[in-house]
Amino acid sequence: MEHHVKQPRWILHRTTRWHSLLHDAAIILRPRLSWRYLLVSTVVIYISYCFIRGSPLFASKLPAYTGQHEVGTIDLEIPLKQPRLISNTQFKDGTGPAFQVETVLFSLYYPAIKGAKAHKRHTWVPKPIALRAEGYAQAIHMNNFITRGIFTFGLWVVVGGIEIPAKVDVPILGTDDEKNHDAYPVMVFSHGTVASRTDYSNYCGELASRGYIVAALEHRDGSGPATNILSKQKKERKIFHFGESHLRSDPPMDEPQLKKEQLAFREAEIEETIAVLRRINAGEGPDVYKHNLRKEGHCLHNWGDRIDLNHLIIGGHSYGATGALQALKAGPNSTSIPAIGGVALDPGKSSGPLNHKVDVPLLVVHSDSWSAKYSLFEGRPHFDTVRDLVDSVLDRVGAGWFVTSLKTSHPSVTDAPLIEPLLLSWTTGASINVYEGLREYVKVTSEFFEYLKTGERKGILAEEITHPEYGRDNRTEDRKESMGKDITKYWQIHVAPPAE
Ligand SMILES: *[C@@H]1O[C@H](CO)[C@@H](O)[C@H](O)[C@H]1NC(C)=O
Ligand SMILES: *[C@@H]1O[C@H](CO)[C@@H](O)[C@H](O)[C@H]1NC(C)=O
């Protein structure tokens, strides 16, 4: 009894304060028809909806893969035995050489055994998020405590909750089955500018779910927003986007020279990735795991003879496509990059000159906007330069395709349209359903893998030229009638071998 009577004053205060707060809230929440009220309630309802569905705010989740296999993923960052100095260019701030490969970082995507339990998923923005945020702050030349905080929070709210739907570090398919020890064909994939190893996770994971291994690189050439180089002995080194003005060289750095050094750096990273894959395939998985600075890969001991390095493709998008073409210069007989095929998605334009000396089968896919938008490149229309490049490969090798994926835009093959479908279609003009668009990219890539393995031309690769120029249909009426709608709806074919 005593208790009730002698209530401390602060409780009393609090209750009345709460009462008046609730009263105010009731007034605020009373439905009415003002634009502000509608706006606020829409936002509140939307946030609650996302919260209940467990989906990230303002962005969509990444969809599950659609192929016949489950997908595993492993992040590997492996130090080189000796750092490789690519050029003498130094950072102006005195932090050392700008182009020295110390470690190579990539995500492996692969077919995984059914129903394996994963202990974690990778987030789509590689952790730590604060690193990426600092990269953006750096990009607008306002890298300070406050902007870093705001960007970190913003990233966390908008995309921080997005996970890549591949299972981390689960056994490769066939581990539990003595008879099924196939080796899977493999692609080393190189990203575009302002991207990282996770930006093409859907394309890579979809290929893995169809029985291919993809090693998606993260380049440390200053073209990405932010990346960190780990080391057992030293503090981690952060690399943010950099340009000519950050570099000191003799003669002073200009754009063409920067591209040249970046592409050489990327090529070295591709070589080192292949060297790691070779070690894993040779049964040195446990040793690779031991040296992995990202501490994943405890199942790699089961990977002996599981990577089919005789069917190695170099692939890339944008700057990465230009880099992939450059890496193919080594030729199929080289020991460092013994690729037997190349997949270049939107090569060239501002990403530097293209290597024309490709002596292996080549598939070049343009997005619609890449083909439609006229631009000069190497002194000629970009489209013509690319067509001649593929024509010359076709002449020498007998296998070259140049096709345009209709209604897509430059980022259509990245994860961006899956995560922000509306934003992307408004800003880039892609009108294709984003799932369909990506599925076509995956389909043509697996058809190319199949061609390299069996020599058989299927799907779009079985067709002849439909449009020698972008938009100029030269098919006969008969052919228009007989061609599958699933091809004409999505593709224009500019270069292809004559039908068999
Ligand atoms: C690769 O080596 C094989 C066998 O020695 C040879 O026939 C072929 O012409 C070489 N290819 C290239 C592109 O050099
Ligand atoms: C369409 O153009 C290609 C390339 O110039 C050519 O090889 C093909 O014969 C043409 N087809 C028709 C039906 O004219």
UniProtKB/TrEMBL annotation:
<keyword id="KW-0812">Transmembrane</keyword>
<feature type="active site" description="Charge relay system">
    <location>
        <position position="410"/>
    </location>
</feature>
<dbReference type="InterPro" id="IPR029058">
    <property type="entry name" value="AB_hydrolase_fold"/>
</dbReference>
<feature type="active site" description="Charge relay system">
    <location>
        <position position="346"/>
    </location>
</feature>
<comment type="similarity">
    <text>Belongs to the serine esterase family.</text>
</comment>
<dbReference type="GO" id="GO:0016042">
    <property type="term" value="P:lipid catabolic process"/>
</dbReference>
<dbReference type="GO" id="GO:0003847">
    <property type="term" value="F:1-alkyl-2-acetylglycerophosphocholine esterase activity"/>
</dbReference>
<feature type="active site" description="Nucleophile">
    <location>
        <position position="318"/>
    </location>
</feature>
<dbReference type="InterPro" id="IPR016715">
    <property type="entry name" value="PAF_acetylhydro_eukaryote"/>
</dbReference>
<keyword id="KW-1133">Transmembrane helix</keyword>
<dbReference type="Pfam" id="PF03403">
    <property type="entry name" value="PAF-AH_p_II"/>
</dbReference>
<protein>
    <recommendedName>
        <fullName>Putative phospholipase</fullName>
        <ecNumber>3.1.1.47</ecNumber>
    </recommendedName>
</protein>
<keyword id="KW-0442">Lipid degradation</keyword>
<keyword id="KW-0378">Hydrolase</keyword>
<feature type="transmembrane region" description="Helical">
    <location>
        <begin position="34"/>
        <end position="52"/>
    </location>
</feature>
<keyword id="KW-0472">Membrane</keyword>
<keyword id="KW-0443">Lipid metabolism</keyword>
